[in-house]
Amino acid sequence: MARVLVADDDEDIRLLIEMRLRREGHAVTPVSDGQAAWESLRTGGFDLAILDNSMPELTGLEVTSRCRADAALAGLKILMVTAFVQERDVMDGLEAGADHYMTKPFTLQDLSTQVTLLVG
Asked: In terms of CB atoms within 10 Å, which end of the chain has fewer, N or C?
């Protein structure tokens, strides 16, 4: 299946996403902050990054913008999963380059559906 980076500073949410995706056969790399996400993504090989927006070091928006500015990561699929729910927040995420934006709380079925739509 896909190689997925999951970046969220909330350990419970990160573990929940990680367990669901592993159960579906994906290889998952969990990290707890935006800087660790950026450093992991730069090593290459990921099909999808699932990013929270509100993280220490770098926000999900900052990581997304950096990916879109980096030719080696420009094609990476990015799913924002965040508690920022205002219309402006969604627009900011999509304008930064996220392929899809999900708000918390979310269902695991919705998460699985979006992952399948993004990476098969």
From this structure: C
8 A C-beta contact, residue 3 and residue 26 = yes
Looking at residues 101-119, what average pLDDT do you find? 95
Which residues are paired to 78 by β-bridges? Answer: 49
Which residue, 41, 17, 26, 22, is CA-closest to 104?
Answer: 17
Residue 74 has pLDDT above 90, yes or no: no
Take residue 120 and report the two structure tokens written for it. 């098969």
pTM over 0.90: yes
pLDDT of residue 105 exceeding 80: yes
Q: Within its chain, how far is the Cα of 66 from the centroid? A: 13
Through-space distance between the first and last CA atoms of the chain, rounded to whole angstroms: 8
